[in-house]
């Protein structure tokens, strides 16, 4: 039994009113790493009411758990209102909540890849840099890019969002959300290209001809990743 399985068993054995205390005790916070395995177990074992309750508390770890739970609801076929809620959380000021959005999207992708591709296609075209960040971070996960369609979508989403970043003004680029997006593009390109080098490498190589400092930073950062360095 792995940690996630153990947490699931312990949550099932607890009365629901005791869940918040249990999660606070085992969250790993304050600290550098939140307990992701426990949060995934909460998403497995909870229901919509529980996720809503946790999100409403505003507590960072409970929100983290609840947002991942929204991904499970989407994976089970929840309607566009849940997708809208997840998009709102993508712009949260807390980086852990934003990571929960990416994990939620990956849950959707595990269950319904075509729907995930549709979601990230839409999100990547929005103006909010943190919503764009969620799109690239949610899709650029190696296990999700096993099909040509998914790999091609990942390259296109990275390219679209990079173009949008390059079009932003100097003032916009000082925004923390834009900086977070740049950071994500600093590794997501390498994941996308490694999934399908035939499609990805030509698109990535065009970035090297840019005169934009942020784009060239993205090229350098991805070039340091072993998955991409061996292809260049």
Q: Strand fraction band?
A: under 5%
Biggest sheet features: none
What is the average per-residue confidence, as pLDDT, rounded to a whole number?
A: 97
DSSP strand count? 0
Radius of gyration (Å):
18 Å
Helix- and strand-based class? mainly alpha
Reading the helices and strands in chain order gives: HHHHHHHHHHHHHHH
Note poorly predicted spans: none
Global morphology: globular
Instruction: Give the terminus-to-terminus CA distance.
Output: 41 Å
**Percentage of residues in helical conformation:** over 70%
Total helices: the number is: 15
Please tell me about this protein's structure.
The protein contains 15 helices and no strands. It has 232 residues and is mainly alpha-helical. It has a domain at 1-111. Helix 5 runs antiparallel to helix 6. The longest helix is centred in the C-terminal third of the chain and has 20 residues, at 176-195. It is globular, with a radius of gyration of 18 Å. It starts with a helix and ends with a helix. The model has no long low-confidence stretch (mean pLDDT 97).
Summary, kept brief:
The protein has 15 helices and no strands. It has helices at 3-13, 19-26, 36-45, 48-57, 60-75, 80-90, 95-111, 113-124, 129-139, 148-166, 170-173, 176-195, 197-207, 213-223, 226-229.
Task: From the structure above, extract its key features.
232 residues; mainly alpha; 0% strand
């Amino acid at each position: 039994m792995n940690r996630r399985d153990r947490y699931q068993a312990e949550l099932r054995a607890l009365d629901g009113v005791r869940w918040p205390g249990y999660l606070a005790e085992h969250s790993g916070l304050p600290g550098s790493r939140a307990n992701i395995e426990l949060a995934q177990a909460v998403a497995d074992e909870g229901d919509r009411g529980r996720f809503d309750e946790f999100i409403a508390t505003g507590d960072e770890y409970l929100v983290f758990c609840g947002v991942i739970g929204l991904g499970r609801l989407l994976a089970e076929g929840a309607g566009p209102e849940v997708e809208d809620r997840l998009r709102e959380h993508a712009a949260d000021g807390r980086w852990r909540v934003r990571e929960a959005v990416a994990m939620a999207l990956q849950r959707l992708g595990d269950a319904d890849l075509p729907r995930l591709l549709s979601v990230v296609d839409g999100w990547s075209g929005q103006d909010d840099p943190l919503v764009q960040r969620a799109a690239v971070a949610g899709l650029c996960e190696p296990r999700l890019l096993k099909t040509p369609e998914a790999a091609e979508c990942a390259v296109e989403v990275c390219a679209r969002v990079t173009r949008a970043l390059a079009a932003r003004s100097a003032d916009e680029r000082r925004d923390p959300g834009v900086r977070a997006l740049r950071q994500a593009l600093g590794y997501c390109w390498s994941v996308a290209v490694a999934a399908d080098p035939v499609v990805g490498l030509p698109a990535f190589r065009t970035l090297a001809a840019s005169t934009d400092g942020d784009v060239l930073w993205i090229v350098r950062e991805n070039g340091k990743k072993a998955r991409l360095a061996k292809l260049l």
